[in-house]
UniProtKB/TrEMBL annotation:
TM region positions: 12-31, 37-59, 71-89, 151-171, 183-202, 208-224, 231-249, 255-273, 280-300, 340-360, 372-389, 401-421, 453-472
Keywords linked to the UniProt accession: Membrane, Transmembrane, Transmembrane helix
Keyword Transmembrane helix: yes
Record's protein name: Glycosyltransferase RgtA/B/C/D-like domain-containing protein
Amino acid sequence: MNTIRAAVPIRAGLSGRVNVVTVGMFYLAAIVNAFSYMSLAPILVAAIFFLSIYSLLIVSPLGGLPERRMFCRVFSVGFFMAGIAAIYANQFQDAGQLFSDPAGFFNMATSDARGLSMIQIQVAHEGALGIVLWRSVYDFFAALGFEKARYIGTTVNITAVSLTGVIGIKMIRQLFGNDDYRFRRLTLLVSACGLFWLFAGIHLRDSVVLLAVSVLFYAWLTFMMRPDIGLRLGLIIGWSFLGLLFLGFLRGEFVFVPVAMAFAAIIALYLGRIEPRRRFVVHGLMVLGAFAAMTLYQAYGAELQNVINLRQAGYTDLANAQQSSDSLGMTLIVNQPMPIRLILGSAYLFVFPIPFWSGFQLESAYNLFKSVNVIYLYFVSPLLLIAVIQLMKDKKERTPALLFILFLAAGFTVSIAATSLETRHFGAFLMPILVLSTVPDLREFHVWRQYKIFFILFASGVILVHALWLILKLL
């Protein structure tokens, strides 16, 4: 454990308070995990992952003080949340972890997928890339003498979420330069996110999906900062095709993500404040985008539409099975016509679950993290609203890069509302929202005052929604 503490950048410019929180959280996480598994093995596995990636951040261009600070904080918090999830599974017999999707992924990664190729796994169980990644890590640690226990897979997830935070810092560098205020804002937003706790702590593929989507988002953002038809365009096309491949082997319906990012980029370039000499880039991208869209639709359109329809029907059936017909979600959103579902469903993603306290129990870590996340969103949503208002009011703020982020945040929110209405899927697209939430500068008095007003209004709306829920329950 002394090694871990030495790895945290104590003298590298961190404040004592940040250092104490991060190191203290890691120690607490170590205690919780050791207690739940009755073993020191989870601590050793976490130490190996932490030291390996932290060393990489020191010697590679990925590094930098804010990046290392983000990685340390998110890894420590994620490790602690994995310990909480372990207590739910090991001590409280959490059925969601022991018998549902997490159990299926664990069994596939540790035994059922042995000797199968990624194509063969994909036929039997969606999410083949995540399974292959987990399987490789489980086999590696088994060769070192560790048992194939759940904590190994969740440590992979913790690392993926932590690296997503590092990518987020890179995005802030692209947008705002060396802005320590926004570095710290994003570090707080990522480390406090309940959905990211869920991704880190439970044996699901969402952490890898989050990382893949965020890497692709960063690649497009880099292009949007200096768009040109040439090498940079060739690179982003290459990244997009890789995204199609990887996301197809992680979550089938997410193959639309690279295409959606391309369209968001084209619209942002067309509407944003851009140098006249770069206007030809917009027209070139429009031609390429239209060609790519027609080609992809011709090749995969019917299959993708079938997948989306099946998933939407499946999630609707699940919602009907799990919720009473008079529940707020079923009454106001799931069974409504699509235009109403898009509007109310998009808002619902920021206030679900209703009631917010439904997850505070000892049966499901999954629901616990979701309840924590909605409280988190109560505080983040006013930041997002202020950022949108600033972009709409100030033409100087309306750069192609920021418009691109805005269109992604809005587009992905509407897409999830139209399909699954599942906040776990929404979490894979949270990084554009969190980056956009760093735009408002709360050090300015009028912005801070605006935030307080919007928070009060948002909280009032939440209270009204809960009052409506109570009325529906009593009728």
